[in-house]
Write a structure and sequence with these properties.
Layout (H helix, E strand, L loop, with lengths): L6 H12 L4 H15 L9 H10 L14 H11 L4 H9 L3 H8 L2 H4 L8 H11 L10 H11 L5 H26 L2
Helix pairs in contact: 1-2, 1-3, 2-3, 2-8, 3-5, 3-8, 4-5, 6-10, 8-10, 9-10
Length: 184
Amino acid sequence: MTVFPDVGQAAVIAEESVGELGNRWLHVQAVAARAAEIARAVDADDQKILVAAAWLHDIGYGPDLKVTGFHPLDGARHLVSIGADPRLVALVAHHSGATYEATERGLLNELNHFPRADGPLLDALIYADMTTGPDGRRLEFEDRIDEILVRYQPGDPVHRAITNARPYLREAIKRTQARLDASR
């Protein structure tokens, strides 16, 4: 299966979008590396799309792509505009509990224009993102969540969303870890 953009193109798009954003760029690179490392948690046919999605998951933070200020939605919309694979678009749109934050921001209807496909692929993307800190360092899941809760104050939509998403995200991490353990 051909994925557009492929992994190499995805890395270029990511660098063009967030390469000047310091820690965000470090985070994106580390999430992509983590996704490549855990790719065996998904079907062989899905490994490239996982890594491409990891490269692209935060492109919506890019100053030239920011429209709503909600990076999963802005990133997904950009990917649609360049003709990206719909599964890739959906992964970017729904990564790491985006539904919870879209609800907090009043953007759920807009996000729901992108079909959500729960399963090993989305779980693995969540795993890669939620075990990588904002500066690219590896973190345990609970430490990553705690770090987010410190960065965003209790009244912030991100704080409320991550608090509500924590059980969902924890289960995605557990399912991916079980798939990794079974693949050894």
